[in-house]
Each structure stands twice: as C-alpha cells, then as structure tokens.
Amino acid sequence: xxxxxxxxxxxxxxxxxxxxxxxxxxxxxxxxxxxxxxxxxxxxxxxxxxxxxxxxxxxxxxxxxxxxxxxxxxxxxxxxxxxxxxxxxxxxxxxxxxxxxxxxxxxxxxxxxxxxxxxxxxxxxxxxxxxxxxxxxxxxxxxxxxxxxxxxxxxxxxxxxxxxxxxxxxxxxxxxxxxxxxxxxxxxxxxxxxxxxxxxxxxxxxxxxxxxxxxxxxxxxxxxxxxxxxxxxxxxxxxxxxxxxxxxxxxxxxxxxxxxxxxxxxxxxxxxxxxxxxxxxxxxxxxxxxxxxxxxxxxxxxxxxxxxxxxxxxxxxxxxxxxxxxxxxxxxxxxxxxxxxxxxxxxxxxxxxxxxxxxxxxxxxxxxxxxxxxxxxxxxxxxxxxxxxxxxxxxxxxxxxxxxxx
Length: 406
Ligand SMILES: *Cc1c(COP(=O)(O)O)cnc(C)c1O
Description:
Elements: E1 7-9, E2 12-18, E3 24-25, H1 35-38, E4 51-57, E5 88-89, H2 92-98, E6 103-107, H3 118-130, E7 135-139, H4 143-155, E8 158-164, H5 169-177, E9 181-185, H6 189-203, E10 206-207, H7 214-220, H8 222-231, E11 237-241, H9 246-260, E12 269-275, H10 280-287, H11 311-320, E13 324-328, H12 330-344, H13 350-362, E14 372-376, H14 384-392
This protein binds pyridoxal-5'-phosphate.
Pyridoxal-5'-phosphate binds at residues 115, 117, 143, 241-248, 302-303, 349, 351-352, 377-378.
C-alpha cells in the first residue's frame, strides 16, 4: 500500500478516510470507495466503504474564511456559475403560525439549476477541470442529473446522464437545454446506476453518482457552513428531507468541520425527514442496521429510493450525533408545500416540502425559544404535476390575510 498524501488548499490539507474502517486514502479521480469495505458489498444494500474527506489546518486559520476555502479543490477551478450563497429567509407569517420566532428557511431552490444538488456538481466539476477530465457521467432520479448538466455547461464538460424515463418532464427538459447527452432508461434508478457504471468502465470519465463519489457529500457540506455564517451561530435544530442520505451526510460534515476547526461548539440536532413510502434510513436507525429493501412509493420523487446509496454514512452520523428521524405522509407533504408557498412565498418541490412537513410533525418537541432551520432543497417549478395535485385535492393553505388554519 502506498502512503496517503494530502491535497492542499490554502491553510487546509485534505485526505479521504473510510467511514467504516478508518483506512486512509489520497484524493485522486480514480478513488471512489474503500477497497477493503467495498469488498463486503451485499446486493440491494446501501453502498459500503463510502469515504469522507478529512480536513486539517496546516497554518493559522484566516479570520476571513469562506465556505469554498474548506473544500479540497482550489477556488480557481470552480466553473463560473453562482452556486450557493442562497438566502436564509425569516418567514414572519410562518413564525407566527408555528409559534417559532427563530424559524429560518434556507432556500436552496435558488441555486442555478433549482436544487441543492448544484453544490455537489460544482465541486465535482472543479475537480474534473483540475485533473483534466472532460467527461462526467451520472445516474439520477432527476435533480442530480439536471444539476450536473447545467454546471457542466458552465464548465465546458461533456455530461452523460442516465435518468429513469419516469423523471418529471421539467428535469428532463432542463438537462436537454443544458446540452447533456441524456439516456432515458426504461427502468428504475438502480438500473440507471448500473448502466452509468458500465459506460464509465468502457469509456472512462468521472462518476458523479451520488454518495458513490465522495465529493458529492463534501460539496453539500457548504450549506451547513453558510447557515452557520448567516446565523452567526449554530442553530438548535435543522430539518433535512432525506432519500439517498447524501444531503444529510453533507450537513453533518459541515457542522463537524466547524467543530473540528474550533469555530463552533457543537453539532446541532439534525432531523432526518422521510416520506412514509420511502423511509429506509428511518427504519435502519430504529433497527440499528439496513434490512432488505422495500419498494418506495411517494409523490416526492427526489427522495423516492429503495436502497439509499449514502445510507451507511447517514446512519453512522445520525447515531454518532443523536439525530432524529420523522416520517410524513404524501398528504402532509402536499399540505406542507402549499402552507409554505401561501404562508411565506417560497414555492418548493415536494421533496423539499417534506422537511417542512417534518417540522410540523415535530413542532411540539421544540421549545419556542429555539433556533430552527428548515433546509429547502428544490424549486417548486421542478414538478408541476405534484403541485397541481395539492391544489386539486384542496389541501390546506394559509389564508390571505390572517384567517389561519392550523
Ligand atoms: C436529492 C434531493 C433530496 C434528498 O437528498 P438525498 O441526498 O438523496 O437524501 C431532497 N430534496 C431534493 C429537492 C433533492 O433533489
């Protein structure tokens, strides 16, 4: 075995560490998982041997640090497209409605392609450019693909996507507009994933498959760093809608970095919110490990997964930091979507509204003086069919003005 080398970026040094056994690796384009633990992969279970990026400080931490500085690729490689720095809303009417004066909405639907996935795509694109790689390949339920297509367009990368034909039309159209080579798969996301790996094997390129490429978790941590900077403190509770478990792993990673660099005293309570029809991680947390997959079925397409790719990582983080899980019904998701839109002006897709539905479910367990952040991961225009259903089924809204339903 060769010695692990670190990647430098300003005052920081980085390397990979296996999330399961702790073996360490150099950050290279070929390295995706831990050789040892990936060898123990079972069929139809979350990916084994996922790697995390470990950060350390080599000199004094500059007081003017930016979230981008805490990533293992230098700033100059990031393509010119404004990812991140999304607003933190202070939704007055929802605060009153819920009795939470310190409620904030982190609106990641305002990223260039309309979802939080841009944070991961941006880092993967920067890494590809730094290493002279021209082609990026990804299988996706929709948002990761359209995101990589858009960021790839800004970077001048060739992007090949594998999407199930059932993905919402807006996400497919978006990908085509960005000029990606879109392969519509007449099958599930799992089959799309297999096809993408086969293509990579035969033709080469960098994989942006979520969870699989460690930089997807790493890129998503910037949302936690931004929340910390915008609030000027660590929040008490953060609600995160969860499918593959990569976003929530990234959120944990960001807060862990702040603690390890001595910038924050603690990791907040992170609440993993899942749809009743797609709750593998909630079940695993209750049982201590992942069992056989259950076929997923929810209106929130972006969090509909049978086998969560990043499940092992997310489960370990939830256990380590005493995270909680909440599951909500499709009806509650549609209600949350409409309540958010009519009560704050923030229109999000069902997968994003799931986090807000989780807060409504969990509300009684939170004292009113607590600082609460709901992470809103995708724009409402991404899936008009689902939003139309909410209107047709006449789910509750927050009346204009004043006459409130609860
Ligand atoms: C991908 C996605 C999620 C869930 O992220 P995971 O990493 O799969 O848990 C939630 N909301 C939206 C809008 C997404 O695109």
